[in-house]
Amino acid sequence: MLIEARGVTMRFGGFTAVDAVDLDVAEGRITGLIGPNGAGKSTFFNCLAGDYRPSAGSIRFAGREIAGLTPESHARLGMARTYQVPHTFTDMSVGDNVMVGAFLRHRRTADARRAADAVLERTGLAGQARHRASSLGTAGRKRLEIARALATEPKVLLLDEALAGLTATEIQAAITLVRDIHRSGITIVIVEHIMEVILSLADRVTVFHHGRIISQGTPGEVTGDPKVVEAYLGRSLERQRQRAAEASG
Amino acid sequence: MARFVLAVAIAIALVFPLVFSGAFYERVAALTLLYAIAASAWNLIGGYAGQVSVGHVVFFGCGAYGAAVAYSEWGLPPIAGLPLGVGAAVLLAALVGVPTLRLSGHYFTMATVALAELIRILVGNVPVLGAAVGLMGPAVPRSVWDLSFTSSLPYYYLFLAVLAGLLLFTWWMERSRMGFYLRAIKGSERAARSLGIPVGRYKLYALMLSAGFTAVAGALYLVMVGFVDPDSGVGILLSVKMLIMAALGGAGTLFGPLIGALILVPLEEISNSLLGGQGSGVTFVVYGGIILLIAVFQPGGILAMVAGWWRKS
Question: Among partner residues A76, A87, A109, which is closest to B188 by beta-carbon distance?
Fold first, then answer.
């Protein structure tokens, strides 16, 4: 396993956002984390990425304990992430944004430039490389975040709602990009609340609810799981109908 | 085009004091360059890294007092105190930077204000530093190493050389990994860290570099003016001047601080000479007005405005 999380718990004051979560991410897979709003998936994701230090539990990445390490150490070890709301360096050009990521593995400016150009080409941003990053719209900024993360040459890419807020065509383009990145051998963990996206992308899906994992498996298995349906839709229609019948009878 | 503008600017800088000779012009020109050095030094941390310090006068004071102490304590030429001043400034930056750079945004700025005021009061009570009275450089030059000239012209060329060196360094830094990292930190510390940038360390490097160069400006100030007291050496107004010059010209740009100094220093010197001793209060009012104008109309400074016109035309 590339990532092994055991008993990961995150408390904010008296509130337990993530409660003793175990999760394995296999190398070379696309793992989806889903769940209703407030399920704890983003909090867990932030623990994986190093933005949060878990209150308890262990996270091993390529056999190494990483829980509590700084975000910059995570990046150095080969974990890159994007943010739900893009943190674009708006004062810099699109190309220079990607350069910042490329400098992690390439000290010299010329080498970083070359690496960044390759990433820009691959992510379809080469045409806008010289534009100011502030000129990009939401879809462009999300793409730029992925490019910047890729430039750090990660083993695993953590995508936090990389497709939220995009139009249908933009979503298709983004899915193509994620597939392409995956084919190049990078393991992907994606948090998403658009079901269709996860179902078409992920090999394995983990469903969060109230800070715990309620279901794991292939997309097919998970969507067939009554617990998942209940978490998303509340009580199932069938049971509601039964209740109604009992009440009137 | 840019190269042509640069070549013309350098040519003008080299011959300016020869064309506009006269004690007043020469003095204003030399002071302009001196402040441009200080503002460009401030720009490394305040402009590129976006950590706005209003305590930089402390580092300027390290340089000025270092040079003054070299003479008053050991009878050396003031310029011999430059390494002492720079060393003290870099050390102070390291000591102060570790706790204060953890603060974000306005809190860092407020901490630097507090620090500067604390140091000013401290300096005013230390006898070796002349306490409230201040320290003098050599009254008459004992050798050429005292760098004491009646004309401002030698200072002008000395400052021009130092400024050129500092801008060359900044130009190189802008293109290096450090320059990219500082701008990334300014953009978003969180994203910078996620891309593997040790944010705290880079901010500290930038502050130490900035402090060292600011101390150079302080030492040069003492060499030219020959006197420093708590108000002129560690008074808060000078910190504000560095910030405003950089912001007016364009913080985080190579030539922004120089352009700011080119506008503000002559303005101040002229208003001082017109209004005499009563004019010093007016400076505060003018600076307040400029802060307001920049904040409301052109946060990017003059260079951003010109770049905007350039793109439109």
Answer: A87
Q: Is the pLDDT of residue B19 over 70?
A: yes
Q: Which residue of chain A has the CA closest to B47?
A: A91
**Among B186, B187, B193, beta carbon nearest to A71:** B193
Residue A25 CB neighbours (<10 A): 23
Asked whether the predicted pLDDT for residue A69 surpasses 60, the reply is yes
Q: What is the pLDDT of residues B98-120, one digit of tens each?
A: 999 988 778 999 999 999 999 99
The verdict on a CB contact (< 8 Å) between A100 and B195 is: yes
Chain A residue with CA closest to B187: the answer is A89
A155 residue type, one letter: K
DSSP-derived 3-state class of residue A156: strand
Residue B212: is it exposed, middle or buried by C-beta count within 10 angstroms (0-12/13-18/19+)? buried
* A76 has a chain B CB within 8 A of its CB: yes
Q: What topology is assigned to B2-312 in CATH?
A: ABC transporter involved in vitamin B12 uptake, BtuC (1.10.3470)
Q: What is the pLDDT of residues A20-44, one digit of tens each?
A: 999 999 999 999 998 888 888 889 9
Contacts of A104 in chain B (CB under 8 A): 195-197
Mean pLDDT of A161-167: 85
Residue A12, domain CATH: 3.40.50.300
A15-25/A3-12 β-pairing: antiparallel
Closest C-alpha among A13, A1, A88, A81 to residue A47: A81
Lowest mean pLDDT among B203-207, B243-247, B306-310: B306-310
Q: What is the pLDDT of residue B293?
A: 84
Range of the domain at A230: 3-86+155-248
Test A75 with B186 for CB contact under 8 angstroms. no
Residues of B in contact with A100 (CB under 8 A): 180-181, 183-184, 192, 195, 197
